[in-house]
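FIELD: query
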Amino acid sequence: MSVQLTPAWRKLLDAGRVRMDIVIDSGSSASMLPVHVAPRHNLLPGGGKVYTSASKVKVQELGTKQLTLGLQDGTSLQSSWEVGEIHRPLASVSKMTAKGNTVIFAPEEKGGSWMIDAIGMKTKLHLRGGVYVLPAWVEPVNERKPTRVSTPGFPRQGNCP
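FIELD: result
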């Protein structure tokens, strides 16, 4: 399944943002970015926590990054991520729901999969390769101008971490 580039999405690409698909992970206790994502963004000190992956590999948190992400509806939001030696961005469902958000996993014929924030704003999740993803675009370092500001973390979808 490929994602259609609507005008809002094209605007994100035209602004020089880099796309990443965030895996919505119900088995993850932390929201984490791979080291290679957003290399020009500052790596801030973290707590040095150590996690165990689903394949039983130890993953150390190397720090945190603060990112502004553009979403498929054309809005932007601030997000905070732990960084580690992983393969793809993971957003923890438990962290998201702890912030008052709702995550729904359902087949398309039953309404599809969504994230719903505390004020009822819905964001579509897409099934790709057997996992649900949220397409997002990382703003370049010099363009941090969010159009929506919420609590620190991954505001609409929950705090990352």
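FIELD: remark
The radius of gyration is 15 Å.
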